[in-house]
Amino acid sequence: MGYISLSTLVFLVAFALPVVLATDTAPIPEDRSQIPQWFKTNVAPYSQRKGTLDPELEVAEATRKIITVNQKGGANFKSLNEAIKSIPVGNKNRVIIKLAPGVYNEKVTIDIGRPFVTLLGQPGAQTILTYHGTAAKYGTVESATLIVWAQYFQAANLIIKNTNPMPKPGTQGQALAMRINGDKAAFFGCKFYGFQDTLCDDRGNHFFKDCYIEGTYDFIFGRGASLYLNTQLHAVGDGLRVITAHGRTSPNEQNGYSFVHCKITGTGTGIYLGRSWMSHPKVIYAFTEMTSVVNPSGWKENLNKGHDKTVFYGEYKCFGPGSHLAKRVPFTKDVDQNQVRPFLTLGYIKGSSWLLPPPKY
């Protein structure tokens, strides 16, 4: 019987273990001013990441294509839908669609066969995607102005709206601005406007940075595993208003919403941080500013009392007049440093293998 040397054994064991990159474990710093440097260090561009990304993403980023859209002419296309239709099914290249400023009144779907699409608006300009779809006409999740099924999607510097009027208090009026169902998607400097069910953050790993999300009831909902960084959550209207309705249905699902260095604002008072739409929602707020609009109880009482034992609602080092835990519902978790750490890293969304900064306009 042969033998294996100690050095060979060490190599084989090391090779068999999963690789955990530093970018997956480096926590977002508590000091907000350090976020730009943290992002620059841990989300470097493709040119510095070759050999560490998903293989199909490496191929796509090496062969970029740019398409221009301007409703006034002088570009490749006059509408966003025309530009998307020009991308072949089975696309394997990063396609950057540069949108000239303006209002694009279109209902847009990027299907699963067109991955690696980036929608890019001009920084500081008004590039608005808008439509007026309603649940009554399309069904709730199909009412969105922008629907993305494809993987490796990016959007930057866009305003995405549903212009259907605010429903009257006590009535149903689902009308989505955005539905993201594609895995490994990122949004930078985007603004989402709606009322009930503004953003369907559904299946997949997602990243939101420097965004703004406005709504009334359940205005962030779905089953996503998502990290929101430096994002403003703004509640409007009156009556019952709830920010999140996470759709996790079992303790085995690896998903949940993590809000880090965010800010909660709005009109009036009594806004809830979340409710148990499904049995096992997972939502955590860390280093987040909560103004006086937040209900002192924090989270909406569960209609199904059995959910008191299955929800995961966490708060960590939040601040502002709406952050005090003294009157919180008893199922709120005041998490400690060890419990919160997984929610503060790119590992939460498996980001080291796919998350890239947006391209320049």
TrEMBL record:
Pathway recorded for this protein: Glycan metabolism; pectin degradation; 2-dehydro-3-deoxy-D-gluconate from pectin: step 1/5
UniProt-recorded Gene Ontology molecular function terms: pectinesterase activity
Gene3D superfamilies on file: Single-stranded right-handed beta-helix, Pectin lyase-like
Domain Pectinesterase catalytic: 67-351
First-listed, main subcellular location of the protein, grouped into a coarse class: secreted
Location(s), subcellular: Secreted, Cell wall
Signal peptide positions (record): 1-22
Family annotation (InterPro entries): Pectin_lyas_fold, Pectin_lyase_fold/virulence, Pectinesterase_cat
Keywords in alphabetical order: Aspartyl esterase, Cell wall, Hydrolase, Secreted, Signal
Biological processes annotated in GO: cell wall modification; pectin catabolic process
Coiled-coil annotated spans: none
EC number: 3.1.1.11
Family: Belongs to the pectinesterase family.
Protein name listed in UniProt: pectinesterase
Species per Swiss-Prot/TrEMBL record: Microthlaspi erraticum
